[in-house]
């Protein structure tokens, strides 16, 4: 009888150990899923930053082209004024 009770206690201990392992495993799964969501959120944030950065680059390049166009136009008009080619120069532009 004592041997049977000892076996029962050993079996119950094994059940508790197994259940503890299941809880530990499920905790690991939840931790992994949380990490995956955090990683995806970080990826989306990073990609948003890249798109924002590229938009700023395009805006900056547009401003550079606009500025250079104004500089060239200014030089041409200054040249026209300096050499007094007159209406031909202005009408050609």
Structural commentary:
The protein has 93 residues and is mostly helical. The chain has one domain (2-92). Helix content is 95%, strand content 0%. The chain is built from two helices and no strands. It has helices at 2-83, 87-92. It is rod-shaped.
Offer a concise description of the structure.
This protein is mostly helical and 93 residues long.
Features:
0% strand; 95% helix; mainly alpha
Topology, element by element:
Blueprint: H1 2-83, H2 87-92
* Mean pLDDT, all residues: 87
Q: Give the DSSP E fraction (strand runs of 2 or more residues).
A: under 5%
What kind of sheet is the major sheet?
A: none
> CA-to-CA gap between the ends?
113 Å
| Radius of gyration, in angstroms, nearest whole number | 38 Å
Structural class category: mainly alpha
What is the count of distinct domains? 1
Q: Which percent bin holds the helix content?
A: over 70%
The number of helical runs is 2
| Unreliable segments of 5+ consecutive residues | none
What's the β-strand tally? 0
**SSE pattern:** HH
Oligomer: single chain
The backbone outline, from C-alpha atoms, is rod-shaped
């Amino acid at each position: 009888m004592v041997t049977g009770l000892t076996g029962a206690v050993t079996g119950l201990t094994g059940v508790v150990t197994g259940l503890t392992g299941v809880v530990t495993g499920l905790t690991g799964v939840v931790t992994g899923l949380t990490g995956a969501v955090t990683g995806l959120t970080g990826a989306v944030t990073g990609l948003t930053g890249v798109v924002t950065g590229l938009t700023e680059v395009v805006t900056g390049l547009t401003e550079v082209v606009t500025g250079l166009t104004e500089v060239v136009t200014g030089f041409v008009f200054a040249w026209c004024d300096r050499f007094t080619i007159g209406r031909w120069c202005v009408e050609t532009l």
